[in-house]
Each structure stands twice: as structure tokens, then as C-alpha cells.
Amino acid sequence: MTVLADTPRWERHGMLWGHLVSDASLAELHEAAARAGLHPRSFDLDHYDWPEQARPGLEGAGVEFVGNKELTRRLLASGLRVPGARRAQARRERTARAAAELGLWADEVPHDLVLGLEGHVDPLPPVGAAPEGAFRLGSDDACGQVRVEAHDELGRIAAREFLARANALSQQLTGHTFVGQVLDAPEWPGS
User: Which uninterrupted H or E stretch holds 146?
Assistant: First the structure.
């Protein structure tokens, strides 16, 4: 059982990012990522994204550094890989489970939803590509720290309405406010 990292070469947020995977289990992957100091939000279905400045933490956690092709080969062999063609379906399944756990009604299920701190929803599409009223919302703690991204007032209103409903349901279930991320719009195409 080995946790592997490739060379950071994907640019996002002004940094280069690499991938961290396990060749055996997601539990092993999560444990190594925590030891390395990676935020649980950097998990993406079958891997963690890590910024190049996290390398010392990964080295300290005993991660093996390999080339990009070797990392992909080992991830495929592990059976943990979520292929590109299946990623959208995997996100829909994750959303359905999270919505059911939270207690959302069928007409309240958002486009993409993560409960808790592990994982993230897709970025908010840019202006012109996002439906009117689209928003991305993240709440990372039970103290009410919330981030909202929206291109228009309809999106900001929709985000506040979703958060109010999610907070009420979460309070009933857990005794604290909603912790998670959501990407949605009043009428998301293809939902």
C-alpha cells in the first residue's frame, strides 16, 4: 500500500498543483493527506489536489513521488479511479446521497452538493457560461463562516435561501449550522 504524488504542473489560483493518490484505498489516501496537512476540501472523488508548496509536508508523510504516467497507471490498477466519463455521474450520486442525508426535498436537490469538509464542488462557471441565478456557496465550520460566489443578485438571493434551508435542516440533525459546499442555480441546464 502506497500513497503517490506526481509533479505539480496544473495551474490554478496562481499556483501549480499536482495529484495525490493511493494504490490501495481511499482511507489510506485520506490518512496520508491529513498527515501531510492537506485540507480535506482538496479531495476530488479519487485524488487530492496539492499545491507545490505542500511538498515538504508530503515528504514528511512518506508519500512516494512518481511521474504523471506512473501515478495514472497505479491509480488505474488500484480500481479507485473515477474515469472522466463517469465523473459527472459520480458527482450526481454524491449529491443525491448528501441531499438525502441532509433531508432536502426532491425539488430542493442542488446541481452539486458536498456535506462536511471532505471534497469540493466544481467552480462557479464564468459570467456568460453560468445560468442566471447561479451560485457557489461554502460553509467550512459550525461558526457560520460562509463564502458565496454569484454573478448576479438572483444568485446571491438563491444562495441565501439555500443556506437558510440547509442551516435549519442541519440544526435539526446535528445541532450546528450547515457545513459543506453547494453549486446551484434556480434552473440549472441538464439537472
Answer: strand 146-150
Task: Give the pLDDT confidence of 56-90 residue by residue, as tens digits.
Answer: 999 999 999 999 999 999 999 999 999 999 999 99
Report helix, strand or coil for 85: helix
Please give the grid coordinates belonging to residue 178: 450547515
Rounded to an integer, what distance in angstroms lies between the CA atom of residue 124 and that of residue 131?
10
Q: Which three cell numbers stand for residue 108?
A: 430542493
CA–CA gap between residue 189 and residue 7 (Å, rounded): 36
Question: If DSSP codes are grouped into helix, strand and coil, which group holds residue 46?
Answer: coil
The residue type found at 140 is: D
Residue 99 three-state SS: helix
| Cα distance between residue 18 and residue 6, in whole Å | 6
Rounded distance between C-alpha atoms, residue 120 and residue 13, angstroms: 15
Which residues, given as ranges, of the chain have pLDDT below 50?
none
Strands 3-5 and 64-65: parallel
d(CA 155, CA 135): 5
d(CA 122, CA 17): 16
